[in-house]
Write a sequence for this structure.
């Protein structure tokens, strides 16, 4: 990028997949950890997907983290750099212009369903010039239908161009958990806080706080894909506990909470199937689970207590019928009174516990 913030033209990388007269064709290649493909573009639309490893793809406008279970839709002629985090098994598609109408207009991260994943693998096993009337044609039709239905995910982070913002962005990518305020960033980047705020709005279309949330969401997705637990991933990207991050990621992904819990706790192939959510897996997975198990234990203890008290009451009544002495009758009456009072105390304690649990769940 030049000092004026302009990028030079990217060389076009031509592959056999760009020239095949088919609606789409598979591309298979394995990359080593740390390997990168320099800035380039392609003549056809790409759907970049990996069954293993994390791809970090940077266009002139934004950076994208693509873990397993996600794919990046990349329109034709869009310059980009692809860097590999961990060994990457890329299984991609090149789409002809007519077939590419099934996908979005711009660069987009798509959620890959189990069906789409298997279709991608099957397409990559087909020859370049597959039979349009046979298995390849059926696969292509299903793939295009699944692409059209695939949900989009907010795993793209707008890329600033100003050198001062680039320094800030590089520092935050290196340490997403850093919670420095704008005044501190301004001192390090050589600009006033007001200038940085204005530049962020102008170059990314969002506030610095929103941009940092997007960055943390993307980095959390990468950590989760590597097998990091949701709580550790939340802490690693700057949240002291998982529930606050769950609410932030929930707003960004705009997904039902139960779906996000499933995504965040899924396996690596489903990639948090995934996006995110540190979102509520801790809030609804760990905390809710703990509340349910704790509530069950309390109910069990209460049942045992009531059962014991019931035995005491019944035994006392039977004893009362067999006893004729006035003194013993009085003792029996006192025992019954004690049993009744104990039962009321236990019931009251149970009600207090239930109210406390309800208030705690409402706070979270």
């Amino acid at each position: 990028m030049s000092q004026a913030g302009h990028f030079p033209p990217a060389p076009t990388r031509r592959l056999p997949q760009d020239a095949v007269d088919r609606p789409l064709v598979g591309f298979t290649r394995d990359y080593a950890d740390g390997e990168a493909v320099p800035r380039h573009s392609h003549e056809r639309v790409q759907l970049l997907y990996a069954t293993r490893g994390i791809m970090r793809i940077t266009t002139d406008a934004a950076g994208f983290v693509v873990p397993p279970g996600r794919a990046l839709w990349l329109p034709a002629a869009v310059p980009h750099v692809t860097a590999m985090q961990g060994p990457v098994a890329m299984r991609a598609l090149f789409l002809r212009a007519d077939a590419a109408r099934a996908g979005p207009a711009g660069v987009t991260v798509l959620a890959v369903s189990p069906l789409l994943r298997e279709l991608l693998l099957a397409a990559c096993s087909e020859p370049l010039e597959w039979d349009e009337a046979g298995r390849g044609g059926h696969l292509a039709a299903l793939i295009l239908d699944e692409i059209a239905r695939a949900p989009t995910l907010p795993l793209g982070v707008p890329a600033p161009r100003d050198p001062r913002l680039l320094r800030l962005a590089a520092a935050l990518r290196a340490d997403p958990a850093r919670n420095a305020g704008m005044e501190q960033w301004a001192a390090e980047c050589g600009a006033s806080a007001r200038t940085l705020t204005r530049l962020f709005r102008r170059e990314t279309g969002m506030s610095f706080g929103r941009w940092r949330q997007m960055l943390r969401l993307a980095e959390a997705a990468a950590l989760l894909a590597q097998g990091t637990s949701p709580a550790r991933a939340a802490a690693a990207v700057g949240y002291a506990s998982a529930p606050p991050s769950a609410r932030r990621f929930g707003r960004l992904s705009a997904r039902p909470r139960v779906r996000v819990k499933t995504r965040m706790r899924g396996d690596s192939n489903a990639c948090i199937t995934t996006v995110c959510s540190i979102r509520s897996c801790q809030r609804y997975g760990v905390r809710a689970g703990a509340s349910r198990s704790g509530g069950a234990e309390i109910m069990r203890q209460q049942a045992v207590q009531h059962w014991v008290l019931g035995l005491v009451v019944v035994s006392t009544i039977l004893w009362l019928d067999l006893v004729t002495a006035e003194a013993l009758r009085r003792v029996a009456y006192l025992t019954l009174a004690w049993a009744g009072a104990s039962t009321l105390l236990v019931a009251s304690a149970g009600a207090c516990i239930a109210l406390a649990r309800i208030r705690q769940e409402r706070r979270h």
